[in-house]
Amino acid sequence: MTKTGTHRAVAPLAVEAIATRIVLARGQKVMLDSDLAALYGVPTRRLNEQVRRNVGRFPADVMFALTAAEFAALKSQFATSNAGSGRGGRRKLPLAFTEHGALMAATVLNSPRATEVAIYVVRAFVQLRDLLASNKELARQLRALEERLERRLDTHGQAIAGILDAIRQLMVPPPETRKRQIGFA
Question: Which of 36, 90, 111, 185 makes the best surface tag, with the fewest CB within 10 Å?
Answer without folding.
Answer: 185
